[in-house]
Amino acid sequence: MCPKLIWKPKPKTDFYKDHWIPYPQGEAVLEKLASLLSFPDSVRTPGLLIYGDSNSGKTMLAKKFKKDVDQWHFNEDPSATTSIVQMVETPPDKPTPKTIFRAILRELNAPAPNSYTSDRLLEQVIYLYQQNNVQMLIIDELHNIGTISHNEQVTFLNALKYLSNVANIRVVAIGVEEAYRILQLDQQLGSRFHPAHLLPWSVNDKEYAKFIIQLLQTAGFTPTKEEVTKSFVQNVHDMTNGLTGETKDLIMAAAHFAQSLNTAEIGIELLQQLNWTPPLMRYR
After folding, report:
1. Torsion angles phi and psi, residue 47, rounded to 5
2. 53 with 197: CB under 8 angstroms?
3. CA dist 279 → 54, 102, 204 (Å)
4. Cβ(21)–Cβ(219) under 8 Å?
5. 203 touches 64 (CB < 8 A)
């Protein structure tokens, strides 16, 4: 049996919106983020490292958390103009400390002249964070700094430690396993980051089948537990290696493909027509 539609599929633009679907690992990480944000100021402010395979849902979780905090913060203080949770992505090309600090300042809509030294940019970040009561900095794709020299990596990690100490900023790092290794370059800093490892789903996890059902419902389908068979779940798992982000992408692509074929069913045959390459084969 295939999951069937009882109404017309949603437009393509809706398929790819960020619809949050609760799942155990994700909820646990959100709880850790909330606990970190509410941690009282201290001499040694803790941090959090969220790491896992590419497309395992790391960035999605961070954006969900930031969105929720922003909604609460701006409702509580309508006069506020700056989020207390800032999020930046480590530049993939030459991510030097200077380029990262400039990226942080751009998120604050603050000037970041190229003529400024790294130290001056960092002082500007600290000043603006204190002025705007910023409490958390989320740095996505931290593993990108693995492409710069060892000395530059150490310089950046020292700057993070300084930022955390001086401005009481809770730093959250996100990346693949390489990010874990990078943080260990500074043992004092690395020990502050409590790891949250996002693991792939087990194909036998009943929550995985529920997650797939909820994804199908988001796309406009109304499948029952009986329609989402073990074979269907196994095929989804094989095609995505059990990664959360991959699973979402696959189901949304299948829903869009079903719409293009004007069919009301998503089954194993349709999945196989997607010409989908599993991530483990993609990254060889």
Report:
1. -135, -175
2. no
3. 9, 33, 20
4. no
5. no
Query: Which residue type, as a one-letter code, is found at position 283?
Result: Y
In terms of C-beta density within 10 A (0-12 exposed, 13-18 middle, 19 or more buried), how is residue 63 classed? middle
Determine contact, residues 49/180, Cβ cutoff 8 Å. yes
For 88, phi and psi rounded to 5 degrees?
-135, 160
- Measured in degrees and rounded to the nearest 5, phi and psi for residue 172 equal -115, 125
Q: Is the pTM of this model over 0.85?
A: yes
Tokens of 242: 């059990």
pLDDT tens per residue across all 284 residues of the chain: 555 443 344 444 455 556 789 999 999 999 999 999 998 877 778 999 999 999 999 999 999 999 999 999 999 999 989 999 999 999 888 788 888 899 999 999 998 888 999 999 999 999 999 999 999 999 999 999 998 888 888 888 888 889 998 999 999 999 999 999 988 888 877 888 999 999 999 999 999 999 999 999 888 887 767 778 899 999 999 999 999 999 999 999 998 888 888 877 788 889 999 989 998 887 65
Continuous segment of H or E residues that includes residue 251? helix 244-260
- State both tokens at 59: 């960035």
What's the rounded Cα separation, in Å, for the pair 210 and 236? Answer: 13
